[in-house]
Amino acid sequence: MNILVTGGTGYIGSHTVVELLNNGFDVHIVDNLSNSSVDVLDSIEKITGKKPAFNKIDLCNYGDVENVISINRFDGIIHFAAYKAVGESVEHPLMYYKNNLVSLMNVLELSDKYGIRNLVFSSSCSVYGEPDYLPVDELAPIKKAVSPYGNTKQIGEEIIHDFIHSNKYKAIALRYFNPIGAHDTALIGELPINKPNNLIPIITQTAIGKNKLSVFGNDYHTPDGTCIRDYIHVVDVAKAHLVAVDRLINGKNKSPFEIFNLGTGNGNSVLEAIQTFEKVAGVPCPYILAPRREGDVEKVFADTSLANRELGWKAELSFEEAIRSAWKWEQHLNG
Ligand code: NAD
Ligand code: WQD
């Protein structure tokens, strides 16, 4: 099966490409390298022994997308490409709406035109906001997005939903919780092209002396006062995409648009993340306590039973393994 992976040189995309290649899929990547490096292709080849086809294109350019889709025969598309920095999206909302939604609409329209009607879409647990109940399942109400970025995921899901209603198209949206860590080889991971905003890269950068960690708020209604998230190893996230794309291509889906949570089902606090890091890395991670960060939810973790049952997928790697791999990646970057 030949899969088009948009954003395939990015963090989650590159890990998914590795899993696809290792499992016999052919892969064609398109990416504009706005948040990734072309060198990732060499790393993918080192890990898998195979080099995926690649085009550097901007998915917002209709003609460029058509050039790729019209001359290849793809069985399915995994659409990762998007901007993802929450704070930046508040500063530059139109840049986010344009990039994340125009690219999605181009992919939908052109794949439909050329008869590829299987799409896996990267969504986010941010659609749940502060959930009314935990663990949060896919039936929980969508809350008003706190950022333009989060809104692009909500609108993206709605666009797909509406498009599918009027077509023979099929799609699966995967709502990732907090993907962390890196491939075990430390050849691919999250590239710190922009200053990271996420906890785990800031922890590893702090431990190596490149950053300073502030813990945002210790007065939440949680056991240690810090926020709780469902941190999931990026390799587990990657593996779910194989199952999802295969499900669509082989018509195993139960409805034209399915949505699944991708999490571990466990919640960990910020302080637990720091303690776990110090335990597995054997180095200290100093931090200061700081005020709450605007827009943060107090606690969120996934009910994964739908994905477990329907996809036959379950997160297998532990929080410790994920953090250990993130540290190995940080050391590789600074090697
Ligand atoms: P990433 O930035 O590492 O990867 C995204 C890739 O898309 C990058 O390589 C970038 O260059 C490319 N890209 C962006 N806009 C493009 C365009 N117009 N044309 C072509 N390429 C373009 O991000 P990631 O962490 O791998 O995230 C992948 C997807 O998962 C995104 O849609 C993101 O919103 C979503 N997501 C990520 C997280 C997370 O915490 N990392 C959580 C939930 C959802
Ligand atoms: C985790 C916890 C912070 C940094 C974001 C996006 C979400 C999704 C995943 C894409 C929170 C605390 C963090 C720091 C801290 N991305 N923290 N000090 O906010 O759950 O989700 O990434 O879809 O849409 O919003 O992840 O890693 O930023 O924060 O104390 O320097 O760590 O307050 O409690 P978040 P995060």
Q: What are the defining features of this structure?
A:
single chain, 335 residues, alpha/beta, seven-stranded parallel sheet, two-stranded parallel sheet, binds nicotinamide-adenine-dinucleotide
- The largest sheet has its strands arranged as 3-2-1-4-5-6-11
Structural class: alpha/beta
Shape summary: globular
Radius of gyration equals 19 Å
- Mean pLDDT reading: 97
Low-confidence blocks of residues: none
User: How many strands, what sense, and barrel or not for the largest sheet?
Assistant: 7 strands, parallel
CATH class of the domain at 2-181 and 231-265 and 302-316: Alpha Beta
The fourth-level CATH homologous superfamily of the domain at 2-181 and 231-265 and 302-316 is NAD(P)-binding Rossmann-like Domain
**CATH architecture group name of the domain at 2-181 and 231-265 and 302-316:** 3-Layer(aba) Sandwich
Ligand roster:
nicotinamide-adenine-dinucleotide, UDP-4-deoxy-4-formamido-beta-L-arabinopyranose
Describe it for me?
This protein is α/β, with parallel strands linked by helices and about 325 residues long. It has a domain at about 1-180 and about 230-265 and about 300-315: 3-Layer(aba) Sandwich (Rossmann fold). Helix content is about 40%, strand content about 15%. The protein has helices spanning about 10-20, 40-50, 60-70, 85-90, 95-115, 150-165, 200-210, 235-250, 270-280, 305-310, 320-335, and strands at about 1-5, 25-30, 55, 75-80, 120-125, 170-175, 180, 215, 230, 230-235, 255-260, 270, 285-290. It has a 7-stranded parallel β-sheet, sandwiched between helices. Strand 2 (about 25-30), helix 2 (about 40-50) and strand 3 form a beta-alpha-beta unit. Helix 5 (about 95-115) runs parallel beside helix 6 and helix 9 (about 270-280) packs across helix 11. It starts with a strand and ends with a helix. The mean pLDDT is about 95. UDP-4-deoxy-4-formamido-beta-L-arabinopyranose binds next to helix 7 and strand 8.
